[in-house]
Every structure is written in C-alpha cells, then in structure tokens.
Design a protein that fits this description.
The protein has 221 residues and is α/β, with parallel strands linked by helices. Helices cover 28% and strands 28% of the residues. It is built from six helices and eleven strands. The strands form two sheets. The protein has a six-stranded mixed β-sheet with strand order 7-8-9-3-10-11, sandwiched between helices. The longest helix is centred in the last third of the chain and has 18 residues.
Amino acid sequence: MWLDLDISRHMHAAGQHFQLQVALRCSQRNVVLFGPSGAGKSLTLRTIAGLLKPDAGHIRLQGQVLFDAANGINESTQQRKVGYVFQDYALFPHLTVRQNVAFGLHKSWLNPRRSARYEQVEHWLHALRIDHLAQMYPHQISGGQRQRTALARALSPGPQALLLDEPFAALDHDLRRHLRQELEAVLDASGIPLLLITHDPQDVDLFGQQVVYLAEGRVGG
C-alpha cells in the first residue's frame, strides 16, 4: 500500500459549507479518483501535496508520515516528494520550457538560470519529446506540449508518487488518446505510482487498476 490517507476538512465560503471526509488506501500502482465536479477530488490531491491542511486525520506515503494531526506532523510541500500536475498545468510564463522543468530541482528563491543544464531535466525533456522546445516559452507551444512540460516538471525531481488533476481535459480527442498512451509508457518505465483525477470513463478504463468513486466529499460505492 503506497498511500494511506484518512482525513477530514470542513470548508466554508460565502455561506456555503463543504465537508471533505476521505479515506483512501491505494494498493495498486495506478489509482483513479473518479466522480462528478465538486466532489472534492482536487481538494483531496491538495491535501496530499501539502497545499491544503486537513483538520484531522493522517496521510502516509510510501510509509512516510506526511501529516498526522494527532501528533502535530505536517510536512511542507517540498518535503513530500510528490509530483503534482494541475489541471491548467500552472507553468511559469516568464520561464522557458527547460527552466520550468528545472524549477522543481531549484531550492532557492531564484529561478533556474536559462543556461543551466541538469541531468534529470534533460532526461525528461528527451523522454517526453520536448527537448527541441527547451528554449521556448509556454505561450509559444501547443496545449499538448504544455501538458508534456508540466509532466516533465513533476517527474524531474524523482517523486515518490505522481498526482494528476484532469490532465487531459483541455485537449482534443486525438491528442488526449495519444498522451494517455505516452503517460502509460512513462509510468511503466519508471514504476512511479499514480493518483489520477478524472470524470472521463476512458481514463478510468486505461489507468483504473484501482478506482475510487468520490461524491459530496466522501468515498462512495
């Protein structure tokens, strides 16, 4: 079991209340979190990545305690060693493709230098076939190329798990199918476990070695 999560978080804004109460035990390498919009899927990923602190519970990744409310443990995002690809990719527009991919390796407040070369970065640029785009900026490349750049950035630090939030939602049908196959090949080669958010049944068919259905903030049937 590579992920053991049992958390709760109460949220309220503009008079609306939402209770996230999720227990996950991921035993298969590829796990799909499936359900309607507003179910709490993205919130769950944010708790794993350290971007949202639960009110109670625990999160354990590969046997490491990332969060434990009872014992006062809450590791920082940098300490958690997870690769996170946001739905909109969240690339830095003022950085080149190579600098974006290198960002996860850079521990200071300064951006990676444009001339800097790192073995891990060059590996993933080549593996995801975007090395020829390395000196270009996000606005100069296509949606599929931005998706590959975001995936390379998530993979370059050598994460213990990969968290993907609707990674294919903004792509057309043919490109979506092609990039699904590319991601499957990357996962097979690297062995990195995956937690994928989707509402697309085709993602479930391809990546759903274990499928967890989430609705209204809770795991359902």
